[in-house]
Specification:
Number of domains: 1
Family: Belongs to the nitroreductase family.
Low-confidence stretches: none
Keywords: Oxidoreductase
InterPro entries: Nitroreductase, Nitroreductase-like
Bound molecules: flavin mononucleotide
Structural class: alpha+beta
Order of helices and strands: HHHEHHEHHHEHE
Helix content: 40-55%
GO molecular function: oxidoreductase activity
Largest sheet: 4 strands, antiparallel
Strand order of the largest sheet: 1-2-4-3
Distance between the termini: 36 Å
Mean pLDDT: 95
Protein name: NAD(P)H nitroreductase
Strand content: 5-15%
CATH superfamily: NADH Oxidase
């Protein structure tokens, strides 16, 4: 079977999908001596952005918090029960939704066209269909759209962290008004999605294993 170039170039520490996905648990106590390089954090973020997004708007933005000073700023908006993750993780990757991502929409699709991946008619069709939708959208619509995109990339980040041999915890226990300015972003433009603490689990601490409802009780077939 042929592997795509993208698949071939990814050298993952843990390429066992079943283990990556089904053995993922929220880790809240990390080994504080483990430091993930900014290069690797950036690589994980880049890999996570292979996620799909509405109209390929990619309405996500990342803020990496990996110094004691930045962690203190984050704590000013975080709920206290999340301090252990903040203090012990190698880094927290905060995901914000970008409500202005459509302002570069024309550039994103023009590049796809210039790279000969779509023809001019398709380019015009995409821009003509979706651009007005976003340009005339309400703040609520843009917030929801960006929140969904951010959530999808967040899930990918949780999994890619495991594929890199790390553990993670998604958390949103913070003050929704204070968090965006606390991470240095403009609240007029960005909305909070989730924080992802990344590091290696502290093996001396228990990991909370959770259960799920029977999905059959939550599923309708229409
Ligand atoms: C959007 C979101 C917000 C969360 N917020 C917190 C949080 O503030 N603090 C925390 O310790 N865990 C938080 N979690 C982790 C959940 O508690 C956890 O995913 C859930 O209990 C299932 O456990 P598991 O991740 O180990 O499968 C959050 C998870 C998600 C997806």
């Amino acid at each position: 079977m042929m592997m795509s170039e993208a698949t071939e170039t990814k050298k993952l520490v843990n390429n066992d999908f079943s283990n990556v996905m089904f053995d993922r648990h929220s880790v809240r106590n990390f080994d504080p001596s483990v430091k993930i390089s900014r290069d690797e954090l950036q690589k994980m973020i880049s890999e996570a952005t292979s996620a799909p997004s509405a109209c390929n708007l990619q309405s996500w933005h990342f803020v990496v918090i990996d110094t004691p000073e930045a962690k203190e700023k984050l704590k000013s908006a975080a709920m206290k029960f999340n301090y252990p993750q903040i203090d012990s993780s190698s880094a927290i990757i905060f995901i914000a939704g970008d409500t202005q991502s459509h302002e570069v929409y024309r550039d994103v699709w023009t590049k796809v066209y210039k790279d000969s991946k779509i023809d001019k008619a398709r380019l015009d069709q995409i821009l003509g269909t979706f651009l007005p939708l976003y340009e005339n959208a309400s703040r609520d619509f843009l917030t929801l759209d960006a929140t969904i995109d951010g959530s999808v990339v967040g899930m990918q980040l949780l999994l890619i962290a495991r594929a890199h041999g790390y553990d993670a915890n998604a958390w949103s226990g913070y003050d929704f008004e204070k968090i965006i300015p606390a991470v240095g972003l403009d609240p007029k433009r960005f909305v909070p999605v989730m924080a992802v603490a990344v590091g290696k689990a502290d093996k001396s601490k228990d990991i909370l294993h959770t259960d799920r409802y029977d999905a059959k009780t939550l599923t309708d077939f229409l």
